Model the fold of this input.
Amino acid sequence: MTFEMKQIATIRSPFRDLINMPVQPKGAKDLCATIVFDEQYSEGLKDLEGFSHVYLIYYFHKVKEPKLRVIPFNDKTHTPRGVFSTRTPMHPNGLGLSVVELVKVEGTIITIRGVDILDGTPLLDIKPYIENFDKVEGEVRSGWMQSSHAEVSQKKSDDRFVQN
Done:
């Protein structure tokens, strides 16, 4: 089986370096960025501005070598974890996922808030956050991840996933 993905837009953020970036949108709640869409996708942006938040699905274009075991930024024990139990960029297909606030849509440019993404990142897809679909009810478990909201909000990246 083969398949093809296309870059539909480019994320423009204040982060030009992989080191010292927020590691999740919670750590960048007041930071804005823009998403610049290719003109051919402009019609697809119709009606998007009625949503408060969107999912961004993007490609970690700076990851050169995926790993199956990693020590995540928010792991207080510094224990190597299976990559599929983490949100590190080192996954085999290099896909990133963020939920961000949608500020405005103007033509082919979208402004978002709460961005933890490197400048120049290729956007593969965008989907609206719909509370009635996406809000998790009942007991929620976060596995090994024990960092508090405050700790997650303050955590910055280091060089552990930077490829030289």
In short: The longest strand covers residues 95-106. Strands lie at 9-12, 32-37, 53-59, 69-70, 81-82, 95-106, 109-113, 121-128.
